[in-house]
Write a structure and sequence with these properties.
Number of domains: 1
CATH architecture: Alpha-Beta Complex
Helix content: 25-40%
Number of helices: 19
Shape: globular
CATH class: Alpha Beta
Oligomer: single chain
CATH topology: Amidase signature (AS) enzymes
Length: 544
């Protein structure tokens, strides 16, 4: 325990250091009341030049890399533009934890100079691209707090394997993003850095646990970031903030040398590492270039699943899509019902086969899924909090993360046996219906007020049965999403359903759908999602 400083003092000092790293010239002069949309502030605040606005607004990952490779943009110009916009996003949404803009700009200058010195040198597939990282990734000389004061002011000495791969592919790393205390809730709020808010409506959650990434990318302070997902932690922030988020199967991309909120050797279902981005093709591109880097050669926990070149043109196929309207327990609110209905109709009009399906035994799966989160009663987390006397934040209390006790061995074996059962049950679902994709809501609701989220099964199902899943934005709440009283599962559901108060308060909040593919068909999902995105959103759609 740090006996010289209280957890409050540690948090205040750490936050002050972060805030001091934003140059005065990049600091906003105006403030915005709670409930505002701040998405347009980067364009109107006067901090970004016309060129910097274009760099950060007009291109996705693939476009930016191509323009830098062609010499139309310098790495330095692109990096400075995204550092400035990330600084603006931080002041509006509180999305950043670690800021190292100086190191990023220095690397960008080095890449530009190296290119001039050796113009024939092959350029990596992420050449010059600024990429943001969730706080839990390790970079030497930088803290990895995961929202806990215990880890503050303790710079790590190692580099996460995934970060090593990105750097070798030419990327530039410039910031890390906020997470919940414990990295285990849907509200990115902790005592060190505070709460990340939703840029579409700052009264609402940005999601979690990769909520800092969600807000930063929605503000286009990044066009490509990396999150993690053990129950929806990539997809829920993607849904809340109106961006794209892909959860691959566990062990596809490297999780090595990351800070985790669970004890080493944890036996529950495994988390995934995946991209969050402003376009579907950026998610596909990230998956492709990282898989081609053969992560299994560096990480013994990664499966050897190479990217398959020369795969068929998905646009020539007629897909068979199973649509899940609800999984029960909590009723789907009007905006999310409309998102699913309109998306189904567009796919059908495009010639794809859309069939309604029901997911089997969701209630039983949910019980096992929740048990898998807390096999050891989260004793490790309790120890980390107790070491500084830090109390849990409201969302940690509400989720009951710290309420359990270590399970007897028999109960652990029972949960592992149930997981084998559900893996087979859901594999049979794919085969029985001969499905290419399943489409369903990412949650029964849009982004909602802070600390109100209760239900993560729409996303968590796919972690427990290890299917790749991706969230695509398809619009925003508008006047069509009239308030109704269609809750149908009892008093708790009625109270949860009533969080949606109608389009007046929720106008402009993003709506999304979730696409799922069969286990280990990560490449297929990325390619099908890119095609589906064109149908649902038109063209090479980028969220903005």
């Amino acid at each position: 325990m740090d006996r010289e400083h209280s957890w409050e003092e540690i948090a205040i000092q750490k936050r002050k250091r972060r805030d001091s790293l934003i140059p005065e010239a990049w600091q906003l002069k105006s403030t915005y009341p709670p409930g505002s949309s701040v998405l347009d502030v980067p364009r109107t605040c006067g901090i970004l030049t016309h060129t910097e606005l274009s760099i950060t607004s007009d291109y996705d990952t693939v476009d930016l890399v191509q323009r830098m490779k062609e010499g139309l943009l310098s790495c330095e110009a692109v990096t400075v533009a995204f550092c400035k916009r990330a600084a603006i996003a931080q002041q509006l949404t509180n999305c950043l934890t670690e800021i190292f803009f100086d190191l990023a700009i220095e690397r960008a200058k080095h890449l530009d100079a190296e290119r001039k010195t050796n113009p024939s040198k092959s350029l990596g597939p992420l050449f010059g691209l600024p990429i943001s990282l969730k706080d839990s990734f390790n970079l030497p000389g930088i803290d990895t707090t995961i929202g806990l004061t215990y880890f503050a002011n303790k710079p790590v000495t190692e580099t996460s394997t995934l970060a090593e791969i990105l750097l070798e592919l030419g990327a530039i790393l410039y910031c890390k993003t906020n997470v919940p205390q414990t990295v285990m809730t849907v509200d990115s709020d902790n005592h060190i850095f505070g709460r990340t808010v939703n840029p579409a409506n700052t009264k609402f959650t940005a999601g979690g646990s990769s909520g800092g990434e969600g807000a930063l990318i929605a503000m286009r302070g990044s066009v490509l970031g990396v999150g993690t997902d053990i129950g929806g932690s990539i997809r829920m922030p993607a849904m809340c903030c109106g961006i794209y988020g892909l959860k691959p199967c566990a062990h596809l991309l490297s999780y090595r040398r990351k800070r985790s909120p669970v004890h080493p050797g944890f036996l529950g279902h495994a988390p995934s590492v995946g991209p969050m981005a402003t376009s579907a093709r950026a998610c596909r591109y990230f998956l492709e270039v990282v898989m081609k880097a053969e992560p299994w050669r560096r990480d013994g926990n990664c499966y050897r699943l190479p990217w398959q070149p020369g795969t068929e043109d998905i646009s020539l196929r007629r897909l068979r899509v199973g649509v899940v309207a609800s999984v029960g327990k909590f009723s789907v609110t009007p905006p999310m019902r409309r998102a699913l209905q309109e998306s189904s109709e567009k796919l059908s009009r495009a010639g794809h086969t859309v069939i309604p399906i029901e997911l089997p035994d969701v209630a039983g799966l949910e019980r096992s899924f929740k048990g898998s989160f807390a096999l050891d009663g989260n004793e490790y987390l309790k120890e980390l909090l107790a070491a500084t006397g830090e109390p849990p934040v409201p969302s940690v209390k509400a989720f009951g993360i710290l309420d359990g006790q270590p399970m007897p061995l028999k109960d652990i074996l029972d949960i592992n046996a149930s997981r084998a059962y559900y893996l087979q049950l859901y594999n049979d679902l794919w085969e029985t219906h001969n499905l290419d994709l399943i489409m369903l809501p990412p949650a029964p609701h849009t982004a909602i007020p802070h600390d109100a989220w209760q239900f993560i099964v729409y996303t968590g199902i796919w972690n427990f049965v290890d299917c790749p899943a991706m969230v695509l934005p398809v619009g925003a709440v508008d006047e069509r999403d009239v308030l109704d009283d269609r809750s149908q599962f009892g008093e708790l559901d009625e109270a949860y359903y009533s969080l949606y108060t109608g389009p007046e308060e929720y106008r402009g909040v993003p709506i999304s759908v979730q696409l799922v593919a069969q286990r280990y068909n990560d490449q297929g999902l990325a390619m099908m999602a890119e095609h589906v995105d064109r149908i649902l959103n038109g063209g090479e759609c980028s969220s903005s």
